[in-house]
Amino acid sequence: MIKLLSALIYINSAEKSRLKPSANYLGRSCERVEDVALLTGGGRYLDDLPLPIGTLYAAVVRSPIAHGKIISVDIEQALQIRGVRAILTLKDVQAWSNPLVVAVKTSMRQWVLASEYVRYVGEPIAVVIAESRALAEDGVERVGVNIQPLPALVDVDAALQDNSVILHEDIGSNCVSDRSFQYGDPDTAFQQAASVIEVDIRYPRNSCTPIETGGVIAQWREADSSYEVTSNFMGPFSLQVVMAAALKIPGTKLRHHVAPDSGGSFGVKQSVLPYIIMSCLASRKAGAPVKFIEDRLEHLQAATSATSRHTHLRAAVDGNGKILALDYDQIEDCGAYLRAPEPATLYRMHGCVTGPYQIQNLKIRNRVVLINKTPTGLVRGFGGPQVYYALERLIHKIAKTLGKTHQEIAALNYVQKDQFPYRAAAGALLDSGNYQQALKILEGSPEFRKILDRREQAKKEGRYYGIGISSIVEPSVSNMGYITTVLTKEQRAKAGPKNGAITSATVSIDPSGNISANIASAPAGQGHQTVISQLLADVFGVLPSQIQVNVDFDTAKDAWSIAAGNYSSRFAGAVAGTVFLAAEKLKARIADYAAQALQAKPEDLIFANENISVAGDETRRISFSRLCGNFHWSPGLIREALGPEAILALQETHFWSADVLEAPDEGDRINTSAAYGFAIDACGIEIDPETCSAKVDQYITVHDAGKILNPALADGQIYGAYAQAVGAALFEEFVYSSDGNFLSGTFADYRLPTASDICTPKIYHQESPSPFTPLGAKGIGEGNSMSTPVCIANAIADALDIEDIILPATPSRIHALLVKKGSLKLDKPSNQTSSMVSNADYPLKAQGEVRLQVLPESIFAVLLDPERLKNVIPGCESIRKTSISDGIQFDCIAVVRIGIAKARFVAKVNLTNIQDPDSFSLGGEGRGPLGMALGMGQVSLKNDGGTTVLKYDYQAQVSGKLAAIGSRLLEGAIRLVLDQLFRALAKEAGAKQEGLFKLLLSRFFTILGVGK
């Protein structure tokens, strides 16, 4: 036995000098191992994966309006298109699936296709399945949907009124949850306060718009009544039960694969959930695999967004600025339906709504309201931006009211270093930190001194320059039980306790000593493979290049739990930590065997330089790969050395959950996360009164995310969150008209920040390791999503000396603030030419003038003759004239092209206020599969020497995919369509045709919207 073991010992004293200590890769900025593949086209995204034979493609018929009753859905014409194989309808959905489960006890029923009513623009109505995506979209255009419009709700406060329209009649109210909480004795604190300071805050809807939209490949297997799915949903595990229940199958019959690479998510791809169910049912309907990929219009319009929130927040404050109590009243807009896991946005931050401050007296009222907008869901920061926008605006106001600085009020109220772990009033167990030290780092930085000097200089010169501060705690590794805080304790008792967040990981070693790790966390740019390679290289004393990290996933074969996935900044704290624990168990198994071979104690062994050696005598060592090979090639040696009970497998699967993640207690306290990082930011912003734009001049951010595993990757997470937060603060907002039409359907209307809009932040780190995670690490990927929007808002408020800051702080909003302040006059724009009263519900404007080589009387003759008018209207298939009380109505069917969209529309056009041949009012509406268009305008005709000068002034609004084209493109397209219409009118009336060059020049100026 000893001879056999000794044969493994590699002793060569001549090589002793070549041995090096362990490299300690973890904690260093090693290069990303993923980048070669990603930067050379070797990534494996969903669209790169091979498809099953016979795969068909899906396109979705969507609602063009925000609220209405479905009268009929006619699919017959669409089925006649060659290549269209099937159409999934509500009848199929109700036969093969159940409504989606929601977290709140309610009678609301949400199917993956609209049932009886549509409740938001873009809501799916039917799914066309065809041999190509193009053919499927042709089929969508041929599906006839008849919807009776109903009044829409787009404001949460209006939705709470007694006379409000009710979205879901079965519920009887638009408020689906109204819960109140009290911790400590806030009433007494408010009575004894020196002052009560309050803010009223509205946080807008926005999103994170990943470069890759959502996608699904689904296949129904008739033989065993199962579904197999591949998607780019990075966190399917927590919703696997929801999807299986909706599909009426056991969870084991839903096999889910996750694509190895993802083109971003930021939480938004949680919205793939209904598409997975929809695609599964489409596959069952068609009897073939089905692939669905969102286009950009669909993603912006109908995927998901962050919740908008109306918060009224009061603080009881003593004379020094110490906060004695807080009183939150939060009204959450969750869109038209509660889509799982909502209303989690409201409750993820519940335990830590007091932020980094010592505030033990607290009142909270949470109301969840449904309105006619896209259902909300996970977006980077997930509840944090909404909470901290209110809390840190309040800190700013307290400081201003008391004549102190923001940081003075913050420091006075911070949790102290010696108080950790600190139990917050609502239950969060803040694990570690030194907030005062982070503040000192910020205030001592040269960048902070620079913005102080710049503000002072700007004041002397009469310029608008402000400084903003914000402090936040960043939760990571969510407690699955936090969402149950929305339930009463009686409801929770009936449903059973829910808590924890199990993470799984598997580490294996092959016969050659090569190491692999399988993790249930699909990356989206965070560098999962790099960090795991660093970690395992340190544990086993090998090179990172010898590590293979597998991130693609199969729920039928790999280890996972309901909490698995890439969300909630859980990678560093939970996933990497669980890999470490699995590796340590495997290392201990190897060490037991190596100790026998080296005649040493396991605790005296060192794993380094691809060998296992004895501490203090590095000449006694074993090749790591050779020893691991024995577990595979000579298992008898293992049993002989360690006994018959020895574990032979060089594979370890480990499950971990933080012990501090408990269910909500009887007093509704909940520790919502296992770890809480800290960030304090400062920024200097200058306002240009000429352009009314806000420019971030300098940004400083100090982070404490516990143990930093890779500084470069940590900084990358900060840069990304910061860039997206600048967008949320200054540019990005999902805008809806008063009747629910979506007005942000392209990146021309939903503006993202560019590199020139973003200054590079200065980043500082301090490390306070968490006692509750295996590596002491905390999340860092969402902090600036929470801290930056309010930091910028505070800086704008400081620059303008105005408190009422609404995000995003666009030039138009800053202009309004400057007018309110009296710094600018509200002058009528010099280029205002419209003769009509502007209507905010008709955001598209078109004014122009056309000279036609024909008399006004001849033009009117054509207008009043439906047969001749049919020749004028582009794509007109039929037209019928009827008289109405104040004019004429034409009912027509036409194929119309607007910008990049073309569709068949059923339209009503009214000519009223007719003054033949001088003027008339033009109005009407058109409905089709791409949306709805409404318009009104004035047209005048003037005889000018035998020709007609026709002037038009038009306002319009569109919905559906038409709206998603974007207002800038649409306004140019409308001008062109009107120009073509009037010229065709003149031609039918007998006008001479213009020369080609003159005509093209005229069209060019028309598109630009300027006169010739």
UniProtKB/TrEMBL annotation:
<dbReference type="InterPro" id="IPR010419">
    <property type="entry name" value="CO_DH_gsu"/>
</dbReference>
<keyword id="KW-0560">Oxidoreductase</keyword>
<dbReference type="Pfam" id="PF02738">
    <property type="entry name" value="MoCoBD_1"/>
</dbReference>
<keyword id="KW-0500">Molybdenum</keyword>
<dbReference type="InterPro" id="IPR000674">
    <property type="entry name" value="Ald_Oxase/Xan_DH_a/b"/>
</dbReference>
<dbReference type="InterPro" id="IPR046867">
    <property type="entry name" value="AldOxase/xan_DH_MoCoBD2"/>
</dbReference>
<dbReference type="GO" id="GO:0016491">
    <property type="term" value="F:oxidoreductase activity"/>
</dbReference>
<feature type="domain" description="Aldehyde oxidase/xanthine dehydrogenase a/b hammerhead">
    <location>
        <begin position="40"/>
        <end position="151"/>
    </location>
</feature>
<dbReference type="InterPro" id="IPR008274">
    <property type="entry name" value="AldOxase/xan_DH_MoCoBD1"/>
</dbReference>
<dbReference type="InterPro" id="IPR023393">
    <property type="entry name" value="START-like_dom_sf"/>
</dbReference>
<dbReference type="InterPro" id="IPR037165">
    <property type="entry name" value="AldOxase/xan_DH_Mopterin-bd_sf"/>
</dbReference>
<dbReference type="InterPro" id="IPR036856">
    <property type="entry name" value="Ald_Oxase/Xan_DH_a/b_sf"/>
</dbReference>
<dbReference type="Pfam" id="PF01315">
    <property type="entry name" value="Ald_Xan_dh_C"/>
</dbReference>
<dbReference type="GO" id="GO:0005506">
    <property type="term" value="F:iron ion binding"/>
</dbReference>
<dbReference type="InterPro" id="IPR016208">
    <property type="entry name" value="Ald_Oxase/xanthine_DH-like"/>
</dbReference>
<dbReference type="Pfam" id="PF06240">
    <property type="entry name" value="COXG"/>
</dbReference>
<dbReference type="Pfam" id="PF20256">
    <property type="entry name" value="MoCoBD_2"/>
</dbReference>
<protein>
    <submittedName>
        <fullName>Aerobic-type carbon monoxide dehydrogenase, large subunit CoxL/CutL-like protein</fullName>
    </submittedName>
</protein>
